[in-house]
Amino acid sequence: MTPRQEQTVRLPLTGDSPLEAPAAWETLRSGCPVATAELPSGDTAAYLTRYADVKNVLADPRFARPAATDPGAARVAPDGAGGPAADADGSVAIPDRGEGHQRWRRRVGKYFTAKRMTALRPGMTAMAESLVDAMVERGGPADLKASLGFPLPVFVICEILGVPAEHRERFSHWSDAFLNVTRFTAEQTRTAQAEFTRYMEAHVAAVRADPGDDLLGMLVRDGGAEEDGGPSDEELAATGMGLLVAGHETTANMIGKMTALLLADRSRWERLVADPALVRTAVDEALRFDANSGFGIRRYLTEDIEIDGRPLPSGTTVVCAMPAANRDERMFPDAASMDLTRSPNPHLAFGAGPHACLGQALARTELQVALEVLLRRLPTLRLAVPAGELHRLEGLLVGGLREVPVVWEESAA
Amino acid sequence: MNIGVDTTRCCGAGQCVLIAPDVFDQREEDGIVELLDATPGEALHPAVREAAAVCPGAAITVREPS
Predict the structure, then answer these.
(1) How far is the alpha carbon of A109 from chain B, nearest alpha carbon, in Å?
(2) What is the pLDDT of residues A386-410, one digit of tens each?
(3) Which residue segment(s) compose the domain that A322 sits in?
(4) Distance from the A344 Cα atom to the nearest Cα atom in chain B, whole angstroms
(5) ipTM score here?
(6) A353–B contact, CB cutoff 8 A
(7) By the 8 A CB rule, do A395 and A182 touch?
(8) Which residue among A49, A228, A294, B4 is least enclosed by CB atoms within 10 Å?
(9) 3-class SS at A115?
(10) Which domains does chain B have, with CATH numbers?
(11) Is residue A275 part of a domain?
(12) A-B interface: how many C-beta pairs under 8 angstroms?
């Protein structure tokens, strides 16, 4: 057995290129599975890189994301510059622990069933097709992320919230500001939050007056008025905020990274063009293989535990490095290779346990739709720059590529 | 093959329904797993095993005949 060493790493860890895994992950998994990590805030946390450890902590119902009131909890960024996604401050009215969390989750979860997401599929396909058509009309080279990755998920979220199409641009901007640790100042993030809150107040009032078939309409119809135990205005607005924070930039970046990963070795793309039935497993393999998804998910320990022989006292913040766990050879044979047919693929890109991504059926559907439409409309698609020249997005909690420049054969489009 | 589901562990991810829709569904009222067929035919076994393996709540148990 390799001797265990105490190691301190500074987050985020980065690979040589944005599509590559940081070399430190393998070193940590084999020699120091419970390392000490320093976050951008300067606070420290325990850093887990093995599949089994990451999954166990994520799935442990005793532990949740650190709240502002948790003594000594590690913050992501200094001075609240991380925005609502990083701070988990009191402005987010969604219960994130215990029974309250489960009740909220089940109320909202009924909207995100696999069947309902499948029903949204034709609408999503039409949106993706019109975005790709517009990109083709403008001509190549184009930025796939700006043309398809960024707009598609925010259009879908606006649809789910019952927000009219003409307000989609505003939602894009707010979503960006909520998640950005370094590009927006704390002041700009607060302004975006205030604008979003004002917008949602008016929108929620309109939904209460005439609840539609969208998510908020469903919550109002199911729950009734607040005094009858239904959702409060704050809860409805926070649900909208939660969807943007959790579902926009993550999916936008993943569409870009998935396409870049598949085009970086063009034999992958050609295989999918020849056999589009592989789209389902290819999407999950791209999720597993993504080395640039942010530094992980935090959990705050409210009890003493021990992981791999290292005692972790109550009050410790743990960072679960899902992308490192997703490349753990102990779980995935040939983990360093992208296998478009990998099955089963129990990757942790969406977390695990009671806090696993609520919108994962939505995200999978969007990714599958984006890929299907690209394969069908632009089989000649390729990267316009060498994969090594792609640039990592700076400053986001959610990792991504700044741009995904692509070209295609005009006559074939 | 005999299948069991633990609704208290289910997090409503819907992976099982996407992979094996003849065996699993999600309840209309809260999106939690609903078992349609505890002893599906052999043709469905690979899909059921995959659904159990990827379930993020580890809510599906599969007992194989020994």
Answers:
(1) 6
(2) 999 999 987 656 789 999 999 999 8
(3) 8-412
(4) 5
(5) 0.92
(6) yes
(7) yes
(8) A228
(9) helix
(10) 2-63 (3.30.70.20)
(11) yes
(12) 82
